[in-house]
Amino acid sequence: DAGITQSPRYKITETGRQVTLMCHQTWSHSYMFWYRQDLGHGLRLIYYSAAADITDKGEVPDGYVVSRSKTENFPLTLESATRSQTSVYFCASYKAMNTEAFFGQGTRLTVV
Amino acid sequence: SQELEQSPQSLIVQEGKNLTINCTSSKTLYGLYWYKQKYGEGLIFLMMLQKGGEEKSHEKITAKLDEKKQQSSLHITASQPSHAGIYLCGAHGWGGAQKLVFGQGTRLTINP
To answer: How many angstroms separate the CA atoms of B51 and B29, rounded?
Structure first.
């Protein structure tokens, strides 16, 4: 099916563990983004990518790592999860600036 | 994002009433997006504005970008329960044009 999908939808992990959130889009969009959403903060940009092998930091990159070896995939890794990283994570993609950005359904991550 | 300020942060209105949400930037906006999010779900694209003075409408929702391209307003006429949710404005970043950053969101509640 065409679209942008995130997996898993829900994840509980322990402090200190590594966890990877997956994002896959079928349109071959150049740009992809990772956001976290917390109460009172709206969407905060973690990392973004303009193309395969090109990534850059957003507003809150600390504690996160990204890679983009293929255009359609943009995984986000928490190398050593902390409780402050408990959040809802959204992935998004768009073809070019000033075109609609499409969002995944989100991953609810709880770090205990 | 500190670069986009939304007001109010929350809004409670009686069904049938009109309302306005504002999104303000200290810098010129190059593309302004409005999204809606139902609680616990993904983001739905409403509209995008690019030109100063541009106005777009979708059903009972109208958005406008001012002439200076530093402020946008979202107006809902005759609000309905289906309008309830979180409204987010987004814009392309100023330090790197490709990134897409968002305001903190406005939580809209419609009372019957």
So the answer is: 9
